[in-house]
C-alpha cells in the first residue's frame, strides 16, 4: 500500500473511505485505518527517530558495544515472541533495544514491533519471569496494534499517513519523544495484560510475571511510576485480573534459573 499512497488523490480517497468504514462500525477508536505495511513503515520511522534521540543523549546501548547484554536479553524476547499466539510474528521485524537510564522503570513499543526497555526497569525487577511478563505486555501492544490505534486516535489518520510518506519531520520527533508516555485506553491495557499471560503460558516462565512487577512497583510507592502502571485501570485491579487469568491457565509458580538475568542486570 505504501507505493499507492504516494499519489495524493489516492491518499485522500483511501482516508475518506476508511473513515466512513470506521464510522459505520460504531467502534472507530478501535479500527486501524492503514495497512500492516504502513504500520511497519511508520514504526521504522518512529524507531529511527527514537534511536537518534537517545543516541544523541548517549543513552542508546548499541549492540556493537554491549554485545553481552543483548546476548542475555535476546533469548528472553525470542521465547516470548515464539509462543505461537502472535498475529503478526512474521509480519513485523521485532527487535529490542536498551536505553541506559537507571532512574526510569519503563518499556514501550512502536508500531511494527520495535521494543525499547530502560535499564532502570531491568534492574528493578526480581526475576526473569517478571521481565518476560513486561516484555509480553509491550509485545501485545504492538501485535494487537494498540500503539497504532492510540496514535491514530490522538493524531488522526491523515497525519500518520503523512509521516509514512516522509512528511512532517517535527511531528515525527514529537511522537517518538512521547511514545514512552503514551496513554493507552483501559481496554488496551487490559488486553495487553491478558495477552502477557497468554504469551507466557506457552513458555517456561511463570505466566503471572507482569503481576509480580506491578506488585513490587506498588509496594515501593514510586513517585514517578511508568505510564502503563499509572493509568487506569488501577494496578490493584490489574494484578487481580492477571492473577486470575494465570490461575485459570494453570501456569503460575514456575521457576527459572535466574543466573542469566542477574548477569544481565550487572551488565547494565
TrEMBL record:
Its cofactor is Zn(2+). Residues 74-244 form the Peptidase M48 domain. PROSITE patterns: PROKAR_LIPOPROTEIN (PS51257). The keyword Hydrolase applies. InterPro entries: Mito/Outer_Membr_Metalloprot (IPR051156), Peptidase_M48 (IPR001915). The keyword Glycoprotein does not apply. Residues 1-22 form the signal peptide. Keywords: Hydrolase, Metal-binding, Metalloprotease, Protease, Signal, Zinc. It comes from the Bacteria. GO terms for molecular function: metal ion binding; metalloendopeptidase activity. GO terms for cellular component: membrane. Binds 1 zinc ion per subunit. One of its GO terms (biological process) is proteolysis involved in protein catabolic process. Belongs to the peptidase M48 family. This is Peptidase M48. It comes from Hymenobacter crusticola.
